[in-house]
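Attaching the record inline, Q. Sequence:
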Amino acid sequence: MSDTERDGDQRLRDDFLDRLAHELRNPLAPIQSSVDILRHAGGSESTRERALAIIEHQLSHLVRLIAELTHVSQVTRGTVELERAPVEVRALVREAVDRALSRPANHSPGEPHEIEVELADAPLVVQADRERLEHVMASLLRNAMKFSPAGSRIHVAVDREGQHARIAVRDEGVGIAADKLEEIFGLFRQVDADAGGLGVGLTLARSIVELHGGTLVAQSEGAGLGSEFVLRLPLSTPADTLAAPEVRPGAAVADTRIVVVDDNRDAAESLYMLLTTLGANVRVVYDGNAALEAVQAFRPEIVLLDIGMPGMDGYEVARKLHERPDRQDILLVALTGWAQPQDVERAKAAGFDLHLTKPVTSAQLMQLLADYAARQ
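Structure, as predicted:
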């Protein structure tokens, strides 16, 4: 590598770290203000509800940033693993558009964007990792809204092209110069350096699509003339069938006995409040030894166990629980910030039944409880 190339890479890294700090501070500021609002008891109910909505929205932004960083790490290391299942493309796109429309505008004040959707008449089924394809669609829609003026139209079309499903997202935004149509897919690259973001979304989107055997290209007539991103995915064979619908929680989750183990007391307490709100019977402990004692005394059905605890970590607790004769009736769930494929494998080797990455949402917990109840 030449000195010029090395200097260029260093500038890209430095620029990325500066943008990362900026992108993290942006959601933290309204979260801090909203917490201060909630701390003052004199606020009206509508003010408190608005503060909570702001916190929820900004937290989702932080979660997305962390997910993008995790995906970047997996892509650069070549450790991405797809969990393939039949996915109906029209339904996935419709859900992605609905989610995009339900979010407050992030980038431009004024009138919200209008998203037109044109769907193929017949189902289009692909063998794909649904969660990762949802990430791709969300990235393309965010990109279109970010670089388009408020109130402008975004057109999303889904159709069949030979043996491929074709998804096109077209906007009326700033457009892309011809010599930048490939460069924008480079890691840490952006169409507009002042637009915000980490500059990794399009890189990840293309990498995920290519892992599925598909393609993602950008098209534009030039600056100021809008742009179009076209995604193609190979269709499944006729023998493939759609995945069964998710099990939704019901009354059976009430009074499920759960032990929460986490040395971070705020994390443990917030999880306790959330689980009890969902109807579970919860005990909280803060270290490995207390976890073993709680399991023996409380006889839980589910244990949510943090990994990175001082002293006896979650792996050792899991191994010790596995050795006990009463362990077979307990669903042991790793609850951790470690999210790489090797972390999931290590948790499985230690005896965990499931691996959940922090932060865990109420929807994930409800699904966990529902799945557990369905097996009883």
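The longest strand covers residues 153-161. Residues 3-39 form the longest helix (37 residues).

More tomorrow.
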